[in-house]
Amino acid sequence: MAKDSDSRPGLTRRDVITSAGVLAGGLALGGCKYGTQAYLASKVPPAQPRPEWADARVHAYRPLGSTGFRISDISFGSAELDNAEIVRSAVERGINYFDTSPDYSNAKSERAIGEGISGTPRDQLFLASKFCTPNGHLPDRVAVKDAIRAVEDSLLRIGTDYLDLVHIHAVNSIERLMAPNIHEAFDRLQEAGKVRFLGVSSHTPDLEMVMRHAVDSDRFHVIMVAYNYDYWPGIGEIFHDAHEKGVGVVAMKTLKGAFHNKLDDFSDTEQEAFSQAALKWVLSNRDVSGLVISINRPDQVNEYLMASGRPFEASDQALLERYDALAGSLYCRPGCGACLSSCPNQVPVDDVLRWRMYSENYGRHEEASNRFAALDPRRSTDGCVGCSAPCADACPHGLPVQERLLGASRILRGRA
Q: Which residues contact 390 (CB under 8 A, 6 or more apart)?
């Protein structure tokens, strides 16, 4: 698992500034389709553990682009993490890639990662965090010094001299992707030996456009992309081009809503097998370097690592198709956004339905309710009452959007 300290050559800061200006002006991509930034994260309902899971460990490592590092095919996402012992267990089982962020668990995630990896040789691990603070993501026009300070604060919390990777996170426009001050901050941090590689993550309606530009720009070493079974039909070509250019591809949001333990028609056996089938499908794409999945319970290390190095089989395909048939009318796909422009009240449909999923499927009711309560009243679901629901007609997946929004309102306001 040797690492190469040399970075790929990329654009200069002057190139970045010029590129961003031309694209923002010429394509009018500066506007954000999201009213908020909400992220599908961790607390998947527990499956019933099987005895054979107890000894699960990493069985496959893959090159992460041209970074010179081979990452565990199943890697560690840390939203909601606050337990260093889980990190320690993951390291013992062979996980070597850890993705965190200052705003995960109000910075407790970074601290837990740091404590959990203590004693492990640093060059055996690959640590990724975000341009972020515990209060949220840095704005596009953040001052260079503030972007640098945010990363330096992450280093202090983790207790390391450098990050292997820092992401510009939740990118929803070319303007944000190529924000000159963030790129300058990265260049200065890299020159100081405090970060090694630059990445980008996205699951917005403009994901494919963002990732295409990221790969073509020669500025990014890694892309982290929402990717799950039978979705994003055009993303495969981008992944292949990334692989050919030495850009690492890390998948996230792999459980497609994690409804498997909520489906009455799913047997116990199907519930137990679903997560592994979903992960094996993602890894069946050889252009994918690996995936991160949020882990905050010891049993999840066992459950997810059972998929490591295993082939995707016909039984897995059948299970994922059955899941889609049962959950398709419940799941608002990350990054779709097809209905947003149809709403006369500009309700952030995708965000609200994601918050509902946080509450119902991930056990994060308080957080979801707080996000919903902070929504601009002019864009609230109150306008859904009596609306003709053009959003439902606009949904390409057939979701009963109005019904789901009104249900979300009841749940998140504590009236369900």
A: 342, 343, 344
Number of domains into which the chain is organized: 2
Co-location of 256 and 139 in the same domain: yes
97 with 141: CB under 8 angstroms? no
Cα separations in angstroms, 286 against 207, 224, 250: 20, 15, 12
Q: Are 152 and 192 in contact (CB under 8 A)?
A: no
| Alpha-carbon span 379 to 143, nearest angstrom | 30
Which ranges in 94-225 belong to alpha helices (H)? 108-117, 144-158, 174-177, 180-191, 207-217
pTM for the whole structure: 0.81
Q: What tokens were used for 246?
A: 């030495």
User: Exposure of 34 by Cβ count < 10 A (0-12 exposed, 13-18 middle, 19+ buried)?
Assistant: middle
Is the domain of 120 the same as that of 23? yes
Write the pLDDT tens digit of every residue in 357-403: 777 776 667 778 888 898 899 999 999 999 999 998 999 888 899 99
Query: Are 317 and 373 found together in one domain?
Result: no
pLDDT in tens, 147-196: 999 999 999 999 999 999 999 998 989 999 999 999 999 999 999 999 99
Of 272, 293, 325, the residue at which a domain comes to its end is 325
